[in-house]
Here is the input.
Amino acid sequence: MFSTGEVVRFTLFGKSHGPCIGGILEGIPEGFEIDLDRVAEEMELRKPTGKIGTPRREADAVQFLQGLNGNVTDGRPLLIRIENGNTDGSKYMKFYDTPRPGHADLPALIKFPDHDLRGSGQFSGRLTAAVVAAGAVAKQYIERFGIRVDAFSRSIGNVIDENPHDIDDAHGSRAYATRACDSGTDDLMRAHIEEIGAGKDSVGGVVECIVTGLPIGFGGIWFQALDAEIAKAMFGIPACKGVEFGDGFALARMKGSESNDGYRMDEGRIVTESNHMGGIVGGMCDGAPVVFRTVFKPTPSIGVTQNTINLKTEKDDTVSVEGRHDPCIVPRAVAVVEAMAAMTIADQIRRGL
Here is the structure.
């Protein structure tokens, strides 16, 4: 099992082709009412859609086996269970000899001799279904403090949305299969994914997340810094290969006079003139929305023939991947980014940071 958080602590268990996946969510106070319909809505956002997602279809019905009296928390940890129904491990057997490049196959087989490769085992994005379920609870919890978390697809492959977007735009992305903020960008992203997928290849992209409602001073410092803990949470998501806040790496090309976000008074409130820092300085919120982006690599399981080695013969070999895989995981990852951000913020609230 794998855990994140200290007070609002989430422990993940299961594997792709086991009987179930799930998690244990601790730290949600007793007497908190959970909207179970909203949990189901969040689960729908993680499901694959048409030609831009995997053909694998799962009901993803969330069962709370412990921790709820009706729909109200009873103070015990929430035990979440999601059944795996649509499993087919036959296409994975050859990877025991010829591990997939870009995947966890090789290090996992070397480190864990009994590693179950079916569906990629515990390294599968399938487990993010349990993350989204727990995150759906955390999102409702932080809303009691006036905090919102919404994300959208900033780019997919060479299709880049360069328009400015606020949290309402991000929330509106729920209307589109690619999680773009408008129909035109959705059409372009969808066409790009379908084109890449038709060639038995895959494509990556960037998810942007926006958090509003955090007061000035919220967050820890140094190793408890809000941006540090959000970044750690994001890197815990399979396929995440980069995180930046505000203007991120572009800050390296700016002068301090350009990058600093000036302060102003607006009807008695302290506001920033810009948001190059992404709403966080010194690990704490400065009053602007928290804005960060997460980079997701192309799905490594592709039909294109790739170079690998044969662990049995200890010679060079090739491998191509058949079966059910997403040509792009970015649209489905949006809900996972929101979930991990919400749990991180809920944990910092409960820790008094």
Observations:
- The helical segments are 36-46, 105-111, 128-143, 167-172, 183-198, 226-235, 256-259, 330-351.
- The first strand starts at residue 2 and ends at 4.
